[in-house]
């Protein structure tokens, strides 16, 4: 049974939409969680602006815990939580929950490493000028690290594109799901190639946008 | 203006105590440029960082304008910090912001209205000579220009005190000179008290009124720049003086003195500015029955004033020599050089 690629086009388009939707929403939600988490990790660290060992250790352990679970296992393990949050354990919305839980701690670590690149001397200069911790976070840490944070978010986005392919497992749809269910399981090689090529294009575009934006920000 | 009273800073180093600053007593007067010199690791950076409480003292008391900052609440401390500017060896500018925004930063975080910020930034950039660079980013500037931005930023809030942590150590000699000149203008025109630390003797020689020498966290010697240059006591101070001026009599000359025996009269004549040695000495040979023989000499500049010393041998009758010394001692410092002591 050979499926014509042209006839199949609407299906590919829908899957692309699903992928972009899953990745977009997950990225947004994961950044909203990961960014403050990353900031919290940096400022509570030993010698940080608001040094606080218990909080740092707690946050760091939680992040490590979620980062150590393989995505495919996370996907299944949190089904009950997913059902609780989105009211269903299948569908595109359901796929977003594990994607967020998967990438938020990752983004937190990426943000942490970006912020740690800010020279301690610059932070100290701001302290010496009488800046409050919040002012230092908002006016020094974030603007100084933003270009690097954008590059790191690009990496996280591409990771999400990859992870979203597995999200087909919970009926999330998307290009990865399409490639597996048609291309791999039904031996429709050209569909598999087409979807994979699309994924390649998405990743390329993401990286290009990330690079351009990051460069722009360095000189806003 | 800044008073250290038995101040120490102790770090724990895997169980061991490290006294980075050890029982320091210092007093920096208002409007003074005070230099702290010492080798790397002497505790200089820790010392300045204590002043604005970037480091918390472990012992002793530190008063800034009569106030013990450790007694202040955090908001109060931040307020005081706005009156203490600080510049750094590596400038520590915000790379993502233009020169203008860097200088505006301390004003912006104090909630100064935008109009006032713009006016102040313009004024202060003019002062440091960077008006034409306002819209550039730090990585488009040379080291000297970056430090000028650092100085402008530190001065933006019109502080009373400026702390300089190795402010010229990353700069070449020419740029160092121009930055030191600027710092002098900061003091002269704004009457700001400057505490600067450095490991370079030519820096303190250029601008400091008084200096303290630090070693192993302790202040081992302090005094006016002229005192420390003319009569350094501690070996470390002598080493520092020697980096810009040979103070010891060279061995070959010493040998000559020793060979000639103890009957010779060798003196070290230290002179400053108008008390310049030559006229004084030539006057001596005219007024007294002594002959002056210069063995060794060195002249340098302290704060733009010539400073130096000559090692001379006086030949003549003992009585005449005593009278001659007596006469020149009114305008210059004279010390007898013992053949064995050097
Ligand atoms: N935060 C710190 N923790 C532990 N030791 C420190 C710390 N800061 C400085 N020191 C130590 O204190 C000593 C003095 O350092 P520092 O003040 O930086 O010297 P300097 O500026 O004269 O080179 C050094 O031995 C240094 O290793
Ligand atoms: Mg230092």
From TrEMBL, chain A:
GO biological process: D-methionine transmembrane transport
Protein localization: Cell membrane
Transmembrane feature ranges: 20-43, 55-78, 84-107, 149-171, 191-213
Keyword tags: Cell membrane, Membrane, Transmembrane, Transmembrane helix, Transport
Membrane topology classification: Multi-pass membrane protein
Domain of life (superkingdom): Bacteria
Location, primary (coarse class): membrane
GO CC annotation: plasma membrane
All copies of domain ABC transmembrane type-1, residue ranges: 16-210
Pfam name, any one: BPD_transp_1
PROSITE patterns cross-referenced by the UniProt entry: ABC_TM1
Gene3D superfamilies to which the protein is assigned, alphabetical: MetI-like
PANTHER family, per the entry: ABC TRANSPORTER PERMEASE, TRANSPORTER, PERMEASE PROTEIN, PUTATIVE-RELATED
Family to which the UniProt record says this protein belongs: Belongs to the binding-protein-dependent transport system permease family. CysTW subfamily.
The name this protein goes by in its record: D-methionine transport system permease protein
TrEMBL record, chain B:
Keyword field: Amino-acid transport, ATP-binding, Cell membrane, Membrane, Nucleotide-binding, Translocase, Transport
Gene3D superfamilies: 3.30.70.260, P-loop containing nucleotide triphosphate hydrolases
Pfam families: ABC_tran (PF00005), NIL (PF09383)
Every ABC transporter domain range: 2-241
A Gene Ontology biological process term: amino acid transport
Cited InterPro entries: AAA+_ATPase, ABC_transporter-like_ATP-bd, ABC_transporter-like_CS, ACT-like_dom_sf, MetN_ABC, MetN_ABC_transporter-like, NIL_domain, P-loop_NTPase
GO molecular function, one term: ATP hydrolysis activity
Superkingdom per UniProt: Bacteria
CDD domains: ABC_MetN_methionine_transporter
Protein's UniProt keywords contain Cell membrane: yes
GO cellular component: plasma membrane
SMART domains listed in its UniProt record: AAA, NIL
Family: Belongs to the ABC transporter superfamily.
PANTHER family (alphabetical): AMINO ACID IMPORT ATP-BINDING PROTEIN, METHIONINE IMPORT ATP-BINDING PROTEIN METN
Protein name from the UniProt record: D-methionine transport system ATP-binding protein
